[in-house]
Design a protein that fits this description.
Helix content of chain B: 25-40%
CATH topology of the largest domain in chain A: MetI-like fold
Oligomer: heterodimer
CATH superfamily of the largest domain in chain A: MetI-like
Number of helices of chain A: 14
Shape of chain B: elongated
Radius of gyration of chain A: 24 Å
Structural class of chain A: mainly alpha
Structural class of chain B: alpha+beta
Order of helices and strands of chain B: EEEHEEEHHHEHEHEEHHEEEHEEEEEEE
CATH class of the largest domain in chain B: Alpha Beta
Strand order of the largest sheet of chain B: 6-7-8-3-9-10
Shape of chain A: globular
CATH topology of the largest domain in chain B: Rossmann fold
Number of strands of chain B: 20
Largest sheet of chain A: 2 strands, antiparallel
Largest interface: A-B, 26 and 32 residues
Largest sheet of chain B: 6 strands, mixed
Order of helices and strands of chain A: HHHHHHHHHHHHHEEH
Helix content of chain A: over 70%
Strand order of the largest sheet of chain A: 1-2
Radius of gyration of chain B: 25 Å
Distance between the termini of chain A: 37 Å
Number of domains of chain B: 2
Bound molecules: adenosine-5'-diphosphate, magnesium ion
């Protein structure tokens, strides 16, 4: 009795909402997938059920890879994403560590200020930033995005890492420093390995945002060969009011693959309880 | 191996003076215990020595080097933290080898040292485990081993036994004493537990509110406390303290508390006479009150009613209604006392202590 009661209440309270939520979230991806695989003549045919495939083709993918600049956009996106993520992560680790560990005059103010900076909408910030980019002569170079993405990546990532560093007992690095490590060695060999879940979270966050970013990419690097996937897809696959639905969805699918892989690969690495056993527990 | 000197060390945190003008000399090879109530600045004093806190003023000397402004890694010390601070992502072996690797010691030498120390501590079978796979006692040993392999000039230990259960604590205490005597490394050991302090230290430094109260051997600290704080902090149960008026006359000096009159110890008459007609605080340890049930004994013994009886097995604590407040006496566990009855109390006058009520310094 007790067992079955618990099972049914678990079903209603846990699995049912979870299932609905999953369907709700995954439906757009499913939609994207079937459209990218449908032959053109069936795409706008209202007589067949749009929810599943009756015929299957890879034409859209073929078109995308050979008749558009998609491979180049992907390369651009990758360069910008890795550059911006690396830069943001490095600065955020150093900043988060300083804010989380050192007691210094103005430390708290700096922490709050960084968080406030995160609240400024990028859509406002791009106006002054475009001046900066222009004066440094960075328009339509990778640096234009590699240097501007950190303006919204670093505030969040350093805030997140600051919180993470604070959960690691101070004694660990103090002990390392007594054992003969410099502060940098203690950070590199003790704190960073323990903060790995936090660093990965910040990394995935930066990676995803950079990969999908549209506005700055359009304004600072939006012409010719330098387009990123989001910009190129919209500018080259939508001709005025003509939406090339098949290639569009194929581009969206291919564009989300790296992000999905990044998540899948690192989810296992979110090792919780890594710090368990450091101190009495 | 080295001596350690605190030379007028003061450490201020904004608003709080955690360590106040501490001057202290630890001899080469000595086991010095720093004891005091929670928050008195013991940990801060130790951290200043380790270089984890910058001193506000004063100097710290290890061996013959002034290390006041030298970073922790160059002070050649090892510290055992209260929570052990084992590196959770490293095995026991890697934990112990970490400091040696940083010093670029050859691999074979590291291996030899780690194994030797592991054997000494009986943890040779745990070398491949991670800290989370160890019990509390095992972690404590690993933390100790990590300090020992370094062969530092000084060991610092901050309440290293406080996370162990009572039985293990007593056992480890004994082992730690043997180990220190064998290695002969200067050790500074922080605890708030006066029993640990009394059993472990060659000498004990008692601190209160950031100020060093007394530095002496356990015996001297117990028999000749320098002030009221040390008198009541060391010893369990605490020394009985009550105010008494000094009365002189007819060639005698007496202490009068309520309806009880005590003769001054013969050799202290002169000292007490200075306080004639004034109050002093009188102290007497529980074992210096000899109690017997009933009205036996001589006339000069006190007759005090028994309030509570606490049989502890090895001894019995008898709470007596004294002239001013309660007095606690230690009694033979085989003698029976009943609350409400009178007991006969002999005061070992020669063991009496007295303190100035203003300065709280000991008169004797
Ligand atoms: N980092 C710090 N910032 C501010 N005050 C501190 C800090 N560390 C210790 N204190 C204060 O200094 C005093 C002594 O603390 P501590 O040395 O830890 O005492 P103990 O180890 O004897 O319990 C306490 O009043 C404590 O609040
Ligand atoms: Mg402490």
């Amino acid at each position: 009795m007790v067992g079955s009661n618990r099972l049914s209440s678990r079903l209603v309270l846990l699995y049912l909402p979870l299932a609905l939520f999953t369907i709700f979230l995954l439906f757009p991806f499913y939609w994207m997938l079937i459209i990218s695989l449908k032959p053109n003549n069936l795409l706008l045919n209202m007589k067949i059920n749009p929810l599943y495939l009756t015929q299957f083709t890879l034409d859209h993918y073929r078109y995308l890879l050979s008749n558009t600049d998609f491979p180049r956009w992907a390369l651009n996106t990758a360069i910008v994403t890795f550059g911006a993520t690396f830069l943001s992560l490095t600065s955020s680790i150093l900043m988060g560590y300083a804010l989380g560990r050192f007691r210094f005059r103005g430390g708290n103010v700096a922490g709050t200020a960084i968080f406030l900076a995160y609240l400024i909408p990028p859509t406002l910030l791009f106006i002054p930033l475009s001046q900066v980019v222009a004066r440094f002569g960075l328009y339509n170079t990778y640096w234009a995005l590699i240097f501007t993405y950190p303006t919204f990546l670093i505030p969040f990532a350093s805030w997140l890492l600051m919180g993470y560093f604070r959960t690691i007992p101070r004694e660990l690095e103090e002990c390392a420093m007594i054992d003969g490590a410099s502060r940098f060695q203690a950070m590199w060999r003790i704190i960073l390995p323990l903060a790995l879940p936090g660093v990965l979270s910040a990394g995935i966050f930066s990676f995803t945002l950079s990969w999908n970013e549209f506005l700055y990419a359009l304004v600072f690097m939006g012409s010719g060969e330098m387009k990123t996937i989001p910009v190129g897809t919209v500018s080259d696959l939508i001709r005025a009011d003509l939406f090339q639905w098949g290639p569009l969805m194929a581009a969206a699918m291919l564009g989300s693959v790296p992000v999905a892989i990044a998540y899948m690969f690192f989810v296992d690495q979110y090792v919780s309880g890594l710090t368990a056993g450091a101190v009495k527990g | 191996m080295a001596q350690v000197i605190y030379d007028h060390v003061t450490k201020r945190f904004d608003g709080v003076i955690a360590v106040n003008d501490l001057t202290l000399e630890v001899k080469d090879g000595e086991f010095l215990v720093l004891v005091g109530p929670s928050g008195c600045g013991k940990t801060t004093a130790l951290r200043c020595l380790a270089g984890l806190e910058e001193v506000s003023s004063g100097d710290i000397i290890i061996g013959d080097r002034v290390v006041t402004h030298i970073p922790p890694k160059d002070r050649d010390i090892a510290m055992v933290f209260q929570n052990y601070a084992l590196y959770p992502h490293m095995t026991v072996y890697e934990n112990m080898a970490f400091g040696l690797k940083l010093r670029k010691m050859p691999k074979q030498e590291i291996d030899r040292r780690v194994k030797e120390v592991a054997e000494m501590l009986g943890i040779q079978d745990l070398l491949n485990r991670k800290p989370r796979q160890l019990s509390g006692g095992q972690r404590q040993r690993v933390a100790l081993g990590r300090a020992i392999v370094r062969e530092p000039q000084v060991f610092l230990m901050d309440e290293p036994l406080s996370n162990l259960d009572a039985k293990l604590r007593v056992q480890t205490r004994g082992e730690l004493i043997k180990l220190q005597r064998r290695l002969g490394v200067t050790t500074i050991y922080v605890t708030h537990d006066q029993v640990e302090a009394m059993t472990m230290g060659h000498r004990i430094a008692v601190m209160n509110q950031g100020v060093l109260q007394q530095l002496d051997t356990p015996e001297n600290l117990y028999d000749h406390p320098a002030n009221l704080f040390v008198a009541t902090f060391i010893g369990s149960p605490a020394m009985n303290i009550f105010p008494a008026r000094v009365v002189t006359g007819e060639g005698a000096v007496r202490l009068v508390a309520g309806d009880v009159t005590l003769e001054s110890p013969a050799e202290q008459r002169g000292r007490l006479a200075e306080y004639a007609n004034r109050e002093v605080l009188v102290g007497i340890r529980p074992e210096d009150l000899i109690v017997q049930p009933g009205q036996v004994g001589e006339d000069r013994h006190l007759r005090l009613p028994v309030e509570i009886v606490e049989p502890l097995g090895s001894e019995t604590l008898v709470h007596l209604r004294g002239p001013v407040g309660t007095l606690i006496a230690k009694a033979d566990p085989h003698v029976h006392f009943s609350p409400g009855e009178l007991a006969s109390v002999r005061v070992k006058i020669e063991h009496l202590h007295a303190f100035d009520p203003q300065t709280e310094l000991a008169l004797f």
